[in-house]
Amino acid sequence: MEKVILNQWETNFRPHWFITIEWNDLPTSYAQVEGHTKHLRNVFLTQLMGCRSPRDLPDPPGRPSAIFFHERKPAICRSRQILPFHTHLHLEKLPSPLNEQWYLDVLLRSQVAPRVQKLLKTNTEENKGIVIKRWNKKHHGSYNLKDYYKYHQDSDLVLDYRNSDLKFT
């Protein structure tokens, strides 16, 4: 799995942004989080590209590439511990002059969040629904594999291959 992921960064695209996305319903099933991500992806890309429908979206390189991962993290819900998913988006550099953190923040919070019901919209220091960081190869390159080893998660459930722009050569 690590070789497949590192190959994406070397041959498919070099991510520029690392975005963490929390879900307000704390999904514990992979099907749930994959569905939430599909909707978020469609809304995000149509807003970014100014399209009316996901059917109108160009394939990369006509738009920035994105790769999604789902990670589990313990949480307390109704006095019991659960292992809900949250999502990490590795996003390619946006076209100039849009490739700015403030632009991504405004796009996600103002245009995407109102259209994605399950997206956690809080923005407090201790509970952010969206966290945007510059991608750092040393830190983010194999970041999403820690869940695979920590919780012995099925490797198919780490990488969201259905919603990601994967390319194999």
Radius of gyration, whole Å:
15 Å
For the biggest β-sheet, the strand order reads 8-1-5-2-9
In DSSP terms (H or I, runs of 4 or more residues), the helix count works out at 5
Level of helix content?
A: 25-40%
Proportion in β-strands: 15-25%
Task: Write down the overall geometry.
Answer: globular
The averaged pLDDT comes out at: 91
Q: Give the tally of β-strands.
A: 9
Query: Which runs of at least 5 residues are low in confidence (pLDDT < 50)?
Result: none
Describe the largest sheet: 5 strands, antiparallel
Distance between the termini: 16 Å
Structural class of the helix and strand makeup? alpha+beta
Secondary-structure element string? HEHEEEEHEEEHHE
SSE layout:
Elements: H1 2-12, E1 15-21, H2 30-49, E2 66-72, E3 75-77, E4 80-82, E5 85-92, H3 101-112, E6 123-124, E7 127-128, E8 130-134, H4 137-140, H5 145-150, E9 159-160
Antiparallel strand pairs: 1-5, 1-8, 2-5, 2-9, 3-4, 6-7
Helix pairs in contact: 2-3
Q: TL;DR?
A:
The chain has 169 residues and is of the alpha+beta class.
Can you offer a commentary on this structure?
- This protein has 169 residues and is an alpha+beta fold.
- The strands form three sheets. Strands 8-1-5-2-9 form a five-stranded antiparallel beta sheet, covered by helices on one side.
- Strand 3 and strand 4 form a beta hairpin.
- Helix 2 packs across helix 3.
- The protein is globular and about 45 Å long.
- The relative contact order is 0.26.
- The model has no long low-confidence stretch (mean pLDDT 91).
